[in-house]
Write a structure and sequence with these properties.
Elements lengths: L2 E5 L2 E3 L5 E8 L8 E6 L6 E6 L6 E3 L7 E6 L4 E6 L8 E7 L9 E5 L2
Parallel strand pairs: 2-10
Antiparallel strand pairs: 1-3, 3-8, 4-5, 4-9, 5-6, 7-8, 9-10
Length: 114
């Protein structure tokens, strides 16, 4: 069955960096867009970034543009989110999503705090 497993979250100081990973299985990974979203308590899930199947097209939320980079390794069936210059307002649970069936991962917590 389709499975997405995120990892790489944690506690980081403002200005720091983290890289999230999302390992996929159960579908032809390279054929589908992959996306990252995030959610904070009391708010709806917010789009962060997306990448096309072969990685040629990407798009970002304005709030992360220039700081976050989405990438993928189709040989490893994994999508990444490199997050730099982190701010306290980036604190959230981060989820990956596949265009295939709209399946979500379980999420990984990112906390930006001094």
């Amino acid at each position: 069955q389709v499975q997405l497993v995120e990892s790489g979250g944690g506690l980081v100081q403002p200005g720091g960096s983290l890289t999230l990973s999302c390992a996929a299985s159960g579908f032809t990974f390279s054929s589908y867009y992959m996306s990252w979203y995030r959610r904070t308590p009391g708010k709806e899930r917010e789009f962060v970034a997306a990448i096309s199947g072969r990685g040629k097209n990407t798009n970002y939320a304005d709030s992360v543009k220039g700081r976050f980079t989405i990438s993928r390794d189709n040989n490893k069936n994994t999508v990444y989110l490199q997050m730099n210059s982190l701010k306290p307002e980036d604190t959230a649970t981060y989820y990956c999503k596949t265009e295939y069936g709209g399946i979500w991962g379980q999420g990984t917590q990112v906390t930006v705090s001094s």
